[in-house]
Amino acid sequence: MSLRTTAYVTDVTPGAGVLPPRAWYPASDAKSLSLNGTWRLRRSATADAHDDAFAAPGHDTRDWAEVTVPGHWVLQGDGAFGSPVYTNHLYPFPVDPPHVPTENPTGDHVRVFDLPKDWPRLSEGGALLRFDGVESCARVWLNGTELGWFTGSRLPHEFAVGELLRPTGNVLAVRVHQWSAGSYLEDQDQWWLPGIFRDVTLLHRPEGSVTDFFVHASYDHRTGEGTLCVDSGVAGRITVPALDIDIATGATATVPVDPWTAETPTLYDGVLATPGERVPLRIGFRTVALEDGLIKVNGRPLLFKGVNRHEWHPEHGRALDLETMRQDVLLMKRHNINAVRTSHYPPHPAFLDLCDEYGLWVIDECDLETHGFTEQSWRDNPVDDDRWTPALLDRAARMVERDKNHPSVVVWSLGNEAGTGRGLTAMAEWIHARDASRLVHYEGDVDCRDTDVYSRMYPPHAEVERIGRSLDGGTRKRRRLPLVLCEYGHAMGNGPGGLADYQRLFERYDRLQGGFVWEWIDHGIRHPELGFAYGGDFGEELHDGNFVCDGLLFPDRTPSPGLLEYRKVIEPVRIEGQGRDGSVRITNAHDFADLSALTFTWSYDVEGETAATGTLSVPALTPGESAELKLPEPPAAEGPEARWTIRALLAQDAPWAPRDHVVAWTQLPVTPHRPPALTPSTAPTSASDGIHLGPATFDARTGTLLALGDLEVTGPRLDVWRAPTDNDEGAPWQPDARLGPLWRKLGLHRMRHRVDAVEPDGTGLTVRTRVAPAGAEVGLATAYRWASDGERLKLTVSVVPEGDWTLPLPRLGVRLALPRAGRVRWFGGGPGEAYPDTRSASRSARWTASVDDLQTPYVRPQENGARADVHWVELGGLRIDGDPAFWFTARRWTTEQLEAAAHLTDLTPGDKVWVNLDHGQMGIGSQSCGPGALPQYHLHARPAEFSFVFSTRG
Questions:
Q1: Given 135, 277, 401, 417, the catalytic residue
Q2: pTM for the model
């Protein structure tokens, strides 16, 4: 009889028919069969649209669609199976737990498979069917027999199926519902994407095979010995050949070992052998402890230089393959990142294998967030409702049991932004009882009643310093715990700013044990018309726009300027010194590794070009140790500006990067740059086509520069506007002023330019103007003073604020347009963009790029591409020297067009290249979900004077 049972969809229990959780391992000598691949799919609009007849063998699915598993059906079929939905914290359905809408997209999946010819006889042992991830609720049948159902999207679930298997024609049927009671526990600031998105595997279970096992591998830093004990549900033996270990399960062996750390990830290959199975082990010896108010591993405090990582691929969503996971780990290691918080759910288990192998500290987070209940002051929050506690405990257990044998996992996290309640306490108590070898984290536990770490999100720098100085108050327990910023540095669009300022605090105060930048990658979905889509691009009823694009990687995994800045800020080697006297101080900022794996080089750069190079002999400093070294005598080289560049590079190939990979660098100025002098020698003359001054022609009425020789020029004139960044726009819940809206309210995007005087004299031309927004009394009295020596043209801009300016300026400089520009050459900061609080990674040299390459492709267009500390730039037949050094940007569209664009595909190159030469820029901050730019990075409206010398190039 076919049934249309749907009561389980709103059942708050975790499921039925599922086996208890156990340790995950990637392989053994027992047979397995991947059921990934092409499945048949029938999508329905509701949970009860069809009965369960589809699960019966012989049901005709030939006219059904095909989808790929692992995968999300809404990302396949070109929209035929529905669309993705993005919300930050609002539930995309009425909040009435545990109920979900009648409109509940449901996918019936069918896969027919044969057992391989070398599969053991069905009478020998049993078999398990494992699902590693299904969103959000699955009901499962094999050969017409219902196995059960489950929720917990990012967690493994296994069924015993040995008695149901056939040699051929096995029919696996899975009904997946997008919404379920479990959805209330998975409000995790990401796309809602239904489907079977992780592996499906059939596992043979021989008699006497491994069930569950727990590898206990501790390290005593005082003796240098490791102690191994493996608990196993089925008795067997443990062998570790490299350590001459051969012991029974449950027995203990203590031997000298090299410990595991994220910097020195030593793994020993071993085997767990039971009568029916051999399971390879990769064992890392390490001890995690909370001692002296600090998180310590192997007796030494940690400093997390981490990132939050959602799983993401721009075409496949959260269905990641092994190579994509490896790419993530390698990118992290190459950018000096040492830790990952698996926000906000356990990752694919293979990712943790890679963290073990390459070396990353992991905060493993449970698949739990109920953030949407904040809209009703946390009323009816499941974590404070005893009916939901079994589901919460099930999620905690499935995470811990699956991942407990990974040395990289040093902290368990109960979840994210789920308020407070009895269920969380129950989870913490269960985890502490099950695994005393790791710490427990939860940011919402503000008094640290249940947790071992004081955790915060996005606190301002001043508050972080107060906590570092133990002036923050709080409960007695909390005052004795270390602080970890589980989220900071919101990497949405241009930014985050202020990372270097945070890092200085982390390194100054022992109690501050680092943090995790939010987040790793933009969740843009590749789109044929939009480039990358974000919230609202699929017509969602509720959405949070491009808040889903807040990563250090662009969706295609290209590093953003924010990642390059972070890499520089968290370098594990500090290089400081005085360029003038040729001294340099090298400090090992690792927690565990010495510097024997690195080699150091120097170069002496004159006017941005290398004049000499060499190597620097640096001892193998231990962690925290420093050495004072003397640089060689600089070579005799012409040019006023000189500096040393010191680099720390890998001496040999490492598993995560090739030889000569740059780990750290610094530049030490020797002599400053001297801008070219210009002595006025030409007086302006009037003609029918305007005023002539040297090679320049000006409009006689407005004083606007029209041409420089044969080169047509539009402008320059004062410019204070930039296309607001996501951090300029700010977040409504942040206490700092949201400058983007305030700038628009004042009218800085629509400044009027009034010409008060055009005054030629014997040595040049002065144009006096007032630049101000309509509707306001504030303004900028601006004088342009032009002079020429007959070949070159000098512009001196003087700006005096008028009125009561209460807001900082977005920028202060001049904007001009050129008819063309191909390649751009400049001497100054590069190779990428930099702003006042994001300039650590900007290195002074001579650079070349195309105008198109100067753009930073933020998914939502905004201010980008400024190069800092520029002495001169050449583009479009023009050379521009600045005094003092300046910022420049060049793009094929105006700032106004950039601001109006919602996607990169909205930007169409025009017939001019628009150039900004900026005396100042406002800082960036991270106010899209954090504090704004620090006061020292504000561009206040103050009297200013700056100059440029223009000359044409052949």
A1: 417
A2: 0.97
